[in-house]
Amino acid sequence: MAIQLSVPEAAVRPALSLQGIVRSFRQGGTRLEVLRGASLEVAAGEAVALVGPSGAGKSTLLQIAGLLEKPDAGEVGIAGQACGRLSDVQRTALRRRRIGFVYQYHHLLPEFSALENVVLPQMIAGRSRKEAAERARRLLGHVGLSERLAHRPARLSGGEQQRVAIARALANRPLLLIADEPTGNLDQHTADQVFDLLLGLVRRGGLAALIATHNHELAGRMDRVLALSDGVVAPA
Fold first, then answer.
1. For a Cys-Cys bond, which of 35, 102, 138, 174 suits 182, CB 3.0-4.6 Å?
2. In the chain, what is the straight-line distance between the N-terminal and C-terminal CA atoms, in Å?
């Protein structure tokens, strides 16, 4: 039976909208302007690469897109819902329902098994343990880890750990996937395998994906490539 990776709302376009995002930070006695009106849209079923030099603000832009950080100005839209005036509780609830995250470092909980790492976010979202475990087994099977369910992260390879992280990101059937250098900590062969898996899951599940990467070869395999430079986003 085909596994459902995303929610029906994934048909909404655009899944992600950033309009005029401004963000600056105080550094000593000066203010560092990182984002100066960055705008982009990502549609359901579309994988968009975000490239740019180190320090350009890619991670900051992803944090804002994922509702983990608020911009100084501008608007974030998730499936047509403006998020600027949402309370912290509302932002957390929306993030939990709609957004999945994959980072360069997997951030798995070391004391829990692969299965438990995928079960926990579902239970936090209100799913029963039985239902969460069933979906976790199916997702981990889908990423080729059926024989590793009981293994803790320390007993998994780097590529296997990142596969668990991908399964965890998809556990709550998100509409939007945010990935920050998801293969940056892997060797080239493993990176290619993990990236192919991630891209396939995005496209089959109809997710919108915004993926920051320094790997221009991987970026070129996505649907579009956007470059962040001088605080604004433009086609690469």
1. 102
2. 39
